[in-house]
Design a protein that fits this description.
alpha+beta; 4-stranded mixed β-sheet; 29% strand; HSP40/DNAj peptide-binding domain; 27% helix; 376 residues; binds zinc ion
């Protein structure tokens, strides 16, 4: 399992937050040229990952609607209210991505995938997105959540082939088992011969003679999954966890997609989070501020005692050290930062008024005299 910080699409494309759609397009074109997997034969998988990210960032930032949503919430897509909702039709499913890949290939290299690539291509299953709600205290120490969802799994009866007993095939009569067919096209330059994937067998070179009765020839079956997900300390609202191979099985025994667990952290009213620190406000009266006191405030783990030193001024910032949030990779917790508001009472009792007048008289004959005189 890998913890993903909220992806910064702007950073991925190397553009500023107020970049125009044209700037985004320009940056994207440069980057896909640079990171095309074919140009990085030595670390192809890294290049592919990078390529995917660039494409994902572009999909969002080039679409004004998606971009607005991303700017506001830090992600795109509709995490469902229901905690174990499986997100279908998310904007980054594998199908879309492949579509995008083809486009890029044809734009920059003047051709699509070769027939050979098509033949060996077993399509990876789609990713699944599940939303999980956690409490603030779960962020402090981490937790474990049970996640239930439905996915496609490779049919065990036919081992994903879709054929009865896994062997009810015959050689494709159209391509004679090669998976590719030649097509002749008359063009401006003369007759051109190109190879394409055989449409009869889909490039596999084989035709199913009898379908697997369990999966109906699709090679995969729906299954309910129940897994325990370890949520590390320090995660943020909108953060995602990726569980490799937790998504749908691919067709034709293709590899599994991933499961993404989107975390929604329930806030404690009145407490905001900013990185590792927690922020809140508290209001005391002027007597407490003048004399100093100890008060109880809401902290991340229940009540906390906050010491107000004598002579505290309005808008003073006090810190409860180490009472903030942890980082996902460990290290010390941040602070809980409290802004102190000082209230001047609008109404006081007769007795309070008498005492206050006495205080005022004393104040005027004491150190404050000069200041008092200055304003006269
Ligand atoms: Zn089957
Ligand atoms: Zn064929």
């Amino acid at each position: 399992m890998i913890v993903l910080a909220k992806k910064d699409y702007y950073e991925i494309l190397g553009v500023s937050r107020d970049a125009s759609t044209d700037d985004v397009k320009k940056a994207y074109k440069e980057l896909v040229k640079k990171w095309h997997p074919d140009l990085h034969p030595d670390n192809k998988s890294e290049a592919e990952q990078k390529f995917k990210e660039i494409h994902e960032a572009y999909e969002v930032l080039s679409d004004p609607q998606k971009r607005t949503q991303y700017d506001r919430f830090g992600y795109v897509g509709q995490p469902q209210e229901n905690v174990y909702g499986t997100q279908q039709g998310n904007p980054f499913n594998q199908q879309d991505l492949f579509g995008g890949f083809e486009d890029i290939f044809s734009v920059f290299f003047g051709q699509g995938r070769t027939a050979e690539e098509n033949q060996t291509r077993n399509i990876r299953g789609e990713d699944i997105y599940v939303t999980v709600q956690i409490e603030t205290k779960d962020v402090l120490y981490g937790t474990e959540k049970e996640v239930e969802y439905t996915r496609y799994e490779t049919c065990q009866t036919c081992h994903g082939t879709g054929a009865k007993d896994g062997n009810a095939f015959k050689t494709c009569p159209k391509c004679h088992g090669t998976g590719v067919v030649r097509v002749q096209q008359r063009t401006f330059f003369g007759v051109m011969s190109t190879q394409t994937t055989c449409d009869m067998c889909g490039g596999s070179g084989k035709i199913i003679t009898e379908k697997c009765p369990v999966c109906g020839g699709r090679g995969r079956v729906t299954a309910k999954k129940k897994i325990k997900v370890r949520i590390p300390a320090g995660v943020e609202d909108g953060g995602r966890l990726r569980i490799s191979n937790g998504g749908h099985a691919g067709e034709n025994a293709g590899p599994y997609g991933d499961l993404f667990v989107i975390l929604r952290v329930k806030e404690i009213p009145g407490i905001k989070r900013e990185g590792r620190d927690a922020y809140s406000e508290v209001t005391i009266d002027f007597a407490q501020a003048t004399l100093g006191t100890e008060i109880e405030i809401d902290g991340l783990e229940g009540k906390e005692t906050l010491s107000i030193p004598a002579g505290t001024q309005p808008n003073t910032i006090l810190k409860l050290r180490g009472k903030g949030f942890p980082y996902p990779n460990g290290g010390a917790r941040g602070d809980h930062i409290v802004k102190v508001n000082v209230l001047i009472p609008k109404r006081i009792s007769k007795e309070q008024e008498e005492l206050l007048r006495k205080y005022a008289d004393l104040a005027h004959t004491g150190v404050n005299e000069k200041k008092h005189g200055f304003f006269r």
